[in-house]
Amino acid sequence: MKYLLSIAVLKITIIFFWLSGAISSWVFALLLNPLTGYFLFRAVKKMSKNELYSVAILAFDLCIPFAGFIGLVIFYLCGYVFRYINYSEEDEEYLLPMGAKSYQNFELEKKVLLQSEMNYGEADSIELFSFFEVEPLEETLMGSAETQQKISAIDQLSRIGDRKAITILKKALKLKEYEVRYFANSALEEIEKDHLRQIKLLSESISEQPDEASTYKERGDAYLELYRLGLLDKSIEKTFLEKALMDFMTSLSLSPQQSFLYTRIVEINLLQDKLDELIRLADFALKADLSKEDKAKIYFYKAEACFKRGQYDQVVKFCQRSGEYKTQYDLINCSIEWWTYAG
Q1: Which helix (DSSP H) or strand (DSSP E) does residue 124 occupy?
Q2: Could you tell me the pTM of the whole model?
Q3: Is the terminal CB of the chain with fewer CB neighbours within 10 Å at N or C?
Q4: Any idea which architecture 101-221 has in CATH?
């Protein structure tokens, strides 16, 4: 737009000098007007996707040197004046597919989706490669590398952002180099802020669409993940667990077929040491249509609850039941193998 205005001002200046007699008609018609006409053509072509439109303007300007350009200026000005006179918010809303409110909801959902992709969209690839990426970065950070190399390692760890990376960043807070401690702390704060931004977007979406079960589930996952990462202050950890529990319960009440949510609800009860409630919910959940993976988790959580109570015979029993189903989690598999062998 600035380029177009500059060409227009230049052309008006040249026309002024031509009309005042400072420039001859031959120089204006054969040199200056075609030259500025070409620059005007380039400026309009940049702004408009329709190439025929810019060619038509060039032809009009060259064929009618003075009147053509003045006509174009009047045409543009009339367009702005017409839009200003006829502008109304109602017309603008009418042009949106389903009105302004629906469009705002769409924008909000798009923001949530984009943020979700940023935080979780590359989770599979991060999990696949983080083992290979994190260990060399940890060696760099904890070894005798230069400070700048350690800061670079911190930057890469913050991009990975999983639990292993966060554990290493926390270790970096105890290193002697002030710059390393500073950047490690900043990286941890930024990871926490990313998760909080995700929660804020989901909360806005819920306020707009309070009956959408999937949004409550996503916000519950965000609360729980932030707790698992260990970035929260101890004073508010329990609050985030409570909020996650409430969101999962709300999501389940809105969409009861989400039986997999029982796994998360039982896990939160274990984290809160609500063992009686855990056993009751676990027994109820096992009657639902759960996947083998979820059943393995539920039995394992029951075993954890029994371990906390000192009921070791029940631990062996539930570990054996959990072992009947395959799970991808090494911690669960190792615990099951140990207790099954011990039993």
Answers
A1: helix 123-142
A2: 0.59
A3: N
A4: Alpha Horseshoe (1.25)
